[in-house]
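Agenda item 2: flavin mononucleotide complex prediction
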Amino acid sequence: MSNYQKTNDFNEIVYGRKSIKNYDPSVKINREEMAEILAEATRAPSSINIQPWRFIVIDSEEGKETLVPLAKFNKDKVVSSSAVIAVFADMNNFDYAEEIYSKSVELGYMPKEVKDYQLNAFKPIFATMSKEVIRESIVLDAGLVSMQLMLVARAHGYDTNPIGGYEKDQIAEAYGLDKDRYVPVMLISIGKAASEGFQTYRLPVETVTTWK
Ligand SMILES: Cc1cc2nc3c(=O)[nH]c(=O)nc-3n(C[C@H](O)[C@H](O)[C@H](O)COP(=O)(O)O)c2cc1C
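Presented output:
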């Protein structure tokens, strides 16, 4: 259970989301609620529903101590937030294909013939995909889950900051993960804002869109 006002107001969630640099250090999101937030975030779509995102929730003193030197320019967020979620994309994502598709059949979401057909079609494709192509796909999916996580956090009454400024080449190994398997995507600080976010300008739709 959250101590904070949850909201289902879409405008409040979307327009109220701003990157937050300082958090109330006394606010801790308990692991039960954090797991709920992650479960809701992982409703995000992914290529062939492979769900290649992986998370490390850094919510302990020791965990944060490891992170501070790897995120020097974002130290305040690391230290004051309730947690920092390190988002990775798993190069071995296809290892879970059997589980995902079998469960879908078991739960009645997908006929067995569709599972068999799709897995048989995907297997050779995945086996021959270059690392670069796999990486591009999984990082895209992990970006989607990251966005959803930030919006879900708002719905739970918390604030976030996506962080790209950290030692991406060191993060996996710092937490005992194989760096060739786990591709760093971003860090997301999460907690209760202690100061307001800045107003930020958005390019007009005409600038970023063409109509055909
Ligand atoms: C991939 C990514 C990396 C980012 N890295 C940082 C960062 O290292 N430090 C930081 O303070 N903000 C970082 N930001 C936050 C952006 O500066 C911010 O999202 C942008 O200015 C728009 O502001 P808003 O999030 O308040 O709408 C990052 C955002 C994204 C999407």
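Discussion summary: The beta strands are 53-58, 83-90, 159-163, 182-191.
Owner for follow-up: CH.
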